[in-house]
């Protein structure tokens, strides 16, 4: 699983660097699964009301509370495969 997760992270990063984008909802889901898979449950305070992006990321991550890191990594791989264009998704085992 770790190898597939690491490859998916690499592909998603390269996709972002290519100038192509996901929807905000897709990006938040990818972010939340990445954080849950690498850190676990949210471990920081919710950002203030003026930090809209940071607050949205925190809320998405907090929505994964209780999910195991292995399940989050598997979810990350599956989500990356489903939201990326076929030519990118095909790079993920």
Automatic annotation (TrEMBL):
Q: Which InterPro entries match?
A: Acyl-CoA-binding_protein (IPR000582), Acyl-CoA-binding_sf (IPR035984), FERM/acyl-CoA-bd_prot_sf (IPR014352)
State the coiled-coil residue ranges.
none
Sorted keywords for this record are: Lipid-binding
**A GO MF term:** fatty-acyl-CoA binding
Q: Does the keyword Magnesium apply?
A: no
Q: Which Gene3D superfamilies match?
A: 1.20.80.10
Superkingdom as given in the UniProt entry: Eukaryota
A biological process term (GO) from this entry: fatty acid metabolic process
Q: Does the keyword Transferase apply?
A: no
Domain called ACB: residue spans: 1-89
Sequence similarity: Belongs to the ACBP family.
Q: What is this protein called?
A: ACB domain-containing protein
